[in-house]
Each structure stands twice: as C-alpha cells, then as structure tokens.
Amino acid sequence: MYDFSADSADCVRSVEAGLSDVLTGARLSGPGPAAERLVEAMRHGSLEGGKRLRPLLVRQAAAIFSVSREAALPAGLAVEMIHCYSLIHDDLPAMDDDALRRGRPTVHKAFDEATAILAGDALLTQAFAILADPRCHPDPDVRVALVAELAAGSGAGGMVGGQMRDIEGEEGSFSETDIATMQAMKTGALIRAAVRMGAMLGGADPRALSALTAYAEAAGRAFQLADDILDVTATQEAMGKATGKDAGAGKQTLVSRLGLDEARKNLDAIVADAISALRTFGPRADGLRATARYFAARKR
Ligand code: GRG
C-alpha cells in the first residue's frame, strides 16, 4: 500500500541532503572559486522548509517505470533549484515584495537585493549543470531531453512567461481563459516538466508520456487553484508566507472570478480529471494519485 506521508517525508529528507551536498563552495566553483556570500544566499533560499513537491512528482512518475528514488533524485534537485530561484526572484521588491518565505526572511531581506538576484541566477544555472552530469542519467540523449524539458517548463513559454502575463494581468483586463493560460504557464509548466522528466528517466513511450502530461496539466491546475483558495482562507503562520496578497494586488485568480464555493467544486473536478488520466498505469501510479489529492487538500 502506498504511503504518501512516508514517501513525501523521505523525499523532503533526500532533497534537503542533496541540495546541501551540491550547494557548497567546492561543488559550485567553476574556473574561479564560488563567492562565499553567494553560496550562503543560495543555501538560505533553498534549504529548510520547502514541501519539495516537484522532486516528489519526479520520483513518483519515475517509479511507474521502476526507476529508484535515488536515480530520480538529481533530476528532482534540478527542478527544485528552478523552483527556489523563482521564489527568490518573485519575493524581490520589483515583483511581489515579500519579507517572509517558508517562515523565514526572504533572501533579499536576509542579504540584499543584488545578492538575491544573483543567488536566483546561480540556482537557475546550477539546475542545468546537474542535468548535464552523467550521474543524472547514463544516457546522454536522455540528459539532453531533460535539459530541453526543464528549459521549456521554466522559460519564456513556461514559468517566466507566465510571471510576465501575471504582471500584465494586474491591469485588470483578463478573461477566464487568460487567467487559465497564465496559471498553466506560471505554476503548471514546472509541475508538468517535473512529471515528464520523471517519465523520461524511465524511458516512457509516447503514449505513457502523453497520459502523464494530461495528469500533470490537471495536477498543476489543482495546485494553483488550491493556492488561490489558501491565499484567501489560510493564515500567514500556516503558510509561512504572506496571505491575502492576491486581492490586495488586484491579482486575477479563479477564486476572485468564481467565488470560494464554486472554486472548491472546480478543484474536486480537476483532481478527478488528474486521477482519471492515470487509469492505464495500475498501482504503480498510486504515488501520483495521492499527490493530486494532496494538492487539493493541503493546508499550506
Ligand atoms: C520570478 C522567474 C520568476 C518566476 C515566478 C513560480 C513563480 C513564477 C513565482 C512564485 C510565486 C508564486 C506564488 C507562485 C505560484 C506557485 C506557488 C504557490 C509556489 C509555491 O510553491 P510551494 O507551495 O512552495 O510548492 P514550497 O515553499 O513548499 O516549495
């Protein structure tokens, strides 16, 4: 029987240890030594407190193809580094201007703005170094595919492009379709990449990859809708970050459009869609099923 609590706790521990191993001066240095302050800021922005959901998705998708947790970890670390970089940059004064993240001061508060920008840049860059390393996967073709997948999920047609659309949306002229597109890019694209990268580690065939992509797109929608609901219903203490920000910033979300009750109903339907995309996989996909349910039920 699949145990979500045990799997996610184990994933938190291994991601924490894996990031801590990689984010040292010795491992990060290139032609020159990595600056100590930069390494400290990278560690501050990525260690402790994250739920590590994206590496969990990588391992759960990989598990369908019998890839071990250990073998799925480097790709998971790469996705998590992109995620942590996006949070560091999103918290900057030029973006959301937040002082609290994961219950601690944001990187620009603990260090300074320039250091926070550079720490994000360096995490972004390091993510691709991890994927290029043969320890990530023995087959260079798979490594190249992983690089392309993560770039697509995190770049202008994915997360960064979604953030740009979100900023444009603060002007207030978004339709529901515009909101859905923005969210699919800003939050969904990295979740989609995480699932697909897990599948690629296991050599998924095109049919399996397409079913898992359908799962990931629905799971991403569920994650974001739950986040929008929590922004309205949860406290700062529970979330470890400021809440109530969407309305304050005039942000366009499906909760502001539909109201809480309708949004909750939509959430249940989206989770059902995600789970039904996994019907061909049997019990090996129980991890992904549990995570889709968790996305909707989470309290932080
Ligand atoms: C600034 C380059 C750039 C991109 C910004 C993803 C993103 C795009 C910004 C992060 C801010 C935000 C509210 C995004 C929505 C996605 C979201 C709720 C992220 C938080 O993810 P969790 O809940 O966080 O997985 P932890 O702390 O558990 O890792």
From TrEMBL:
Keyword Magnesium applies: yes
Keywords: Isoprene biosynthesis, Magnesium, Metal-binding, Transferase
One MF annotation (Gene Ontology) recorded for this entry: transferase activity
Pfam families (alphabetical): polyprenyl_synt (PF00348)
Family annotation (CDD domains): Trans_IPPS_HT
The enzyme's E.C. designation: 2.5.1.-
Cofactor: Mg(2+)
Sequence similarity: Belongs to the FPP/GGPP synthase family.
Name this protein carries in UniProt: Polyprenyl synthetase family protein
Organism: Devosia honganensis
